């Protein structure tokens, strides 16, 4: 008797979560909500009668049963991807770039024609996503990712494109309603806007020397550019890096709170090691450095916080 297969939709959700390590990243890749992905995982585990994942901090970790299941499921999906590529008619060569949504929308998109002009015989595919590409299966040729500290796999090459200065921002009208802010601790009294978690703010306060940090509260908006938009609408104080809000600061839509010089990680270009010297990757690297070179304030860290 042929064994009944679980739902293919649930299997796809599990494969994406196992590969990315995150329900959010899997949901982003599959273009569904995190709630839908979580429900698929629960249904798959109930169907199999086995626990495949378990919480580990803010992420999920595969159980031993999950690791064994993922090894076989991933091979099956790799075969499906390869079969799909083989079935499609021959197309022009393409350079597929995965990138964090905020940087893609706020910084790269407006200057994409420059890269297109350099690679006239190639189609450029820019994919804004929080998921990480599976280079082994050819999902992408390169990815631009934000990391606090990044150690790539042995077959991948990672190059720091630019460190990111991170600082609090708010709309001018909202800033006027705040009391005088003489130190980073004073920001704990303001409504804070978060991304997926409170981790960025926690790291920033730690760099500013704030001890005995209380539990941080405030809405979680998942993406950096969404938190920045909420700040622009006067809903609170967001933590932003200068690459994402340069135009807003120049136009007066946002103002910097204080004068901190905190640096939390940076943007990296990740490519397969064997392709790092390909002409197309070289052109991409040069273009990215040009796009990101105008960011100001890359001076030594200074924990001072100016009075307003």
UniProtKB/TrEMBL annotation:
The keyword Transcription regulation applies. The keyword Amino-acid biosynthesis does not apply. It comes from the Bacteria. GO terms for molecular function: DNA-binding transcription factor activity; sequence-specific DNA binding. InterPro entries: LysR-type_TF_proteobact-type, LysR_HTH_N, LysR_subst-bd, WH-like_DNA-bd_sf, WH_DNA-bd_sf. Keywords: DNA-binding, Transcription, Transcription regulation. Belongs to the LysR transcriptional regulatory family. This is LysR family transcriptional regulator. It comes from Microvirga brassicacearum. The lineage of its organism: Bacteria, Pseudomonadati, Pseudomonadota, Alphaproteobacteria, Hyphomicrobiales.
